Every structure is written in structure tokens, then in C-alpha cells.
Amino acid sequence: MMGHIEHHPNDETILSYAAGSLPAAMALVVGCHLQYCSACRERVAQADAVGGSLMSQLQEKPLSDGRRESMMALLDASPSGEASPAAAHESSPAAASRSELPRLLRNLVDQDDFDSLPWKSIVPGMKQVDLKCGEGDAKLLRIAAGKQMPVHTHRGHELTLILRGGYSDSLGKFNAGDFADLDGSVEHQPIADADQDCICLAGMDAPLEFRGWIAKLVQPFIKI
Amino acid sequence: MAKEATQQERTGAFWADCMERVAGERDKKSFMLLFDHFSPRVNAYLLGQGVEASLAEDLTQDALLALWNKAHLYKREKAAVSTWLFRVARNLWIDRLRKQRGIAYESDENLTETYEPEPSINADGDRLLRVIEQLPNNQAQVVYKSYYEGKSHSEIALETGMPLGSVKSSLRLAIRAFRQHFGDNE
Predict the structure, then answer these.
(1) Do A40 and A8 meet the contact criterion of CB atoms below 8 Å apart?
(2) Which residues contact A109 (CB under 8 A, 6 or more apart)?
(3) Are the beta carbons of A28 and B104 separated by less than 8 Å?
């Protein structure tokens, strides 16, 4: 289904994903791309290695007295060897491989095909499904075959993964598996391929909550 | 041999040897060497992420216990022990403090089935450490805030007063330095 992948997340997006610091909606889009892209899995593995080295370098904070002994006791209590069975809500690999949806998305919406999702029309030729991810905005977009989206910029940093079909815009041709990593300055007008609907997963940062009175004071002057 | 190695000789290769003895022989001495070295660092990482002190110690034990229980899944050509432990620790604090983000990461079980060996990764984290130490201040700052405090780009911009674009470009430059370490020059 996924051909050669041409467009990938930016370096800083990969690093933040590995660090665990991307908001959930954006991290989800990266996580789904990884299923299809071994090159980016390797980039994340490298960023994980950076995290490991940084962790090794931290000023040590020893555990309290008694923790070492209780750790040793845990070793005897633990079954040796085999991995514990995956949690019940996780998709089994076999079931997930039959799904049209990327594994992580399938875990979230519990559906195996795009047509079964609760699509809602937003403008003629465009439908969407809002995804509940608790942090930031994530949604699935479905652009009708041959349809041109209105010119738009992005409110903030927006990540998009093409899941089916493809589109073209000023940045190039995007096919299934490709990843568009766009910040707020990019203006574009994607046109879906003529032969089939284009389905994308999009995630963006949530508006920041400002704590503290200094932050509240400066908030009106900061453009995010 | 493990017992003769001095503190200075304990490199990435030493810890990988320990992991193999844990996997192959269920060797508790090797495990406790790993525990004594890594637990204060994992604990420091979790505290940095804002995990409350006694919970951080519980999670540190959980992370090290995962090392013991899943040692048979460890492949030294794929990752340094510190990399492996970092992933486990990251997933643990996400699960406690930022549960929403859990949707974006594969479970450990899935990882072993779907992630093929990645031989170009140099599992020796020691040289990487030197790269990190040589980063300019602003790059080091954004890297630390990303990895240790779980801060998003816009949160870092707000906290440091750096423009968002500078946060991103500093991260990008830092990654370029890391990539040179991995021998992948574009």
C-alpha cells in the first residue's frame, strides 16, 4: 500500500518525539509514520541514543536506603525470561496487519477500515473525523478525488501523514506514507489526486496554557 | 571480565556485556552492577520530568526490573543499554504524567516484532557524550529542555524568550552534530 516515501518529519520533530516532548496529537502522527518508514525509525533510534547518553550524564540522584534490597528481592519474585502478554486493549499483530489503519490509530478508534469511521462533512468535498487525544488537535481529513482545498495557512505547527491516495501542492507531490511537517508560515492549497479520495491524519499543537502572572501579563504580546 | 573493570573502564561495551550475562545466565551480580550505575541516573531523569520523589524511585525500580525481565530481548548491535533504559523510562513517565502521549508510542512487545535491526547505529554511547558536552549553550539548553523536561518547542520558546524559529533551528543544529557522530553526513 505504501510506496517509496519521499517526505519525512523534520529533524526537530523527530528529536522531540524521541524526547517525549511532542504534544499527543502531533506525536501520534509521527508514531503512525514510523510504522511505514524504516529510515525514520532509525532516526528516532538515534535520537533515543542521544536521550540515553544525556541520561547517563545526569547528576546522580541515588535511591533511598532499602531500595537496593527491595530490588534484589524483586528479582527472585520475577518470572524469568518471557515477555508478559500485551495489554488487552493492544491490537494483536495479526489483527493489526489486516487493518487499513496504522496500528496506533487503530488502537485509538477501534476500527479497521476508513469507511466505517464517523465522517462529517465540513465543506463540499471535505470530510473529517475528530480524534480524541486529550492534548492538541488530531483529526482525519478526507478530500474528495480531484478536489482542491481552499488556500490556507496553519494556525501553528501542523503535522500531516497521508494514509491513502495523494495530493499535490506547491511543496510537491505527497503520496501514502509521506509526511508534511509544516509550520505556521506555510501557505498551501493541496489538490487531491483525481483517481481516489485522499485520506490524511493531521495533528497540531494545542494553544498554550499560561500559568503564572508574568506569563499572563506577556501573553497578549506573544504570537504563537 | 566484569569484576576487574574499574570505574573508568565501564563503557557502553561493559554494560552490554552485563546485559548479555543477565539474559544468558540470569546473573544477579551483573544485574546489580547495572542497577548501581543506572538507577541514580534514571531517578534523576524522572525527577527532572517532574515526577514526585517517591514515585520516581518506584518507577526507577520498574524500569530496572524491565531490564531484568526483558533482557532476552536486548540486542547490543541495536542499542546501547542506556538507550534501551531511556526508552523504558520515557514511556514510564509519559504513562504517569502525560498519559495522552501514550497513544503515540508502540508497546515494547510490538517494537521487537516490527523494528528490524539497525546496524548503522553505533551502540557505544560514550563518544556521543562528548558531542553533547561540546554543544554551544543555546543548543544544549533546548536539547536539555526537550529531553529532561518534556517541553514542546512553543513551551521552550515561552520559557527562554527565544523566538520559536530559533528553538527549532537550535535543535536542528544540535541534531546535525549528533548525526556526525553517527557517521551519517548528508
Answers:
(1) yes
(2) A101, A117, A129, A131
(3) yes
What would the pLDDT profile of A54-70 be if each residue is shown by its tens digit?
898 889 999 999 999 99
Domains delineated in chain A: 1-54+100-224 (2.60.120.10)
Which chain B residues are Cβ-neighbours of A46 within 8 angstroms? 121, 178-179, 182
Q: Look at domain B125-181 and name its CATH class.
A: mainly alpha
Cα distances (angstroms) measured from residue A46 to each of A66, A88, B6: 35, 30, 28
Q: Give how far Cα B1 sits from Cα of B14, B17, B18, Å.
A: 9, 9, 10
Contact list in B for residue A35 (CB cut-off 8 A) is: 114
- pLDDT (tens digit per residue) in A69-98: 999 999 988 765 444 444 444 445 566 667
Give yes or no for a contact between A203 and A25, defined as CB atoms under 8 angstroms apart.
yes
Residues 6+ apart with CB under 8 A from A112: A95, A98, A99, A100, A101, A106
Q: Which CATH architecture has domain B7-114?
A: Orthogonal Bundle (1.10)
| Model pLDDT, residue A217 | 55
Where are chain B's structural domains?
A: 7-114, 125-181
Q: pTM for this one?
A: 0.85
Q: Do A53 and B164 touch (CB under 8 A)?
A: no
State the Cα–Cα distance between residues A63 and B97, nearest whole angstrom: 20
pLDDT digits (tens, 9 = 90+) for B118-166: 444 444 556 777 888 899 999 999 999 999 888 999 899 999 999 999 9
> How distant is the Cα of A215 from the closest Cα of chain B, in angstroms?
8
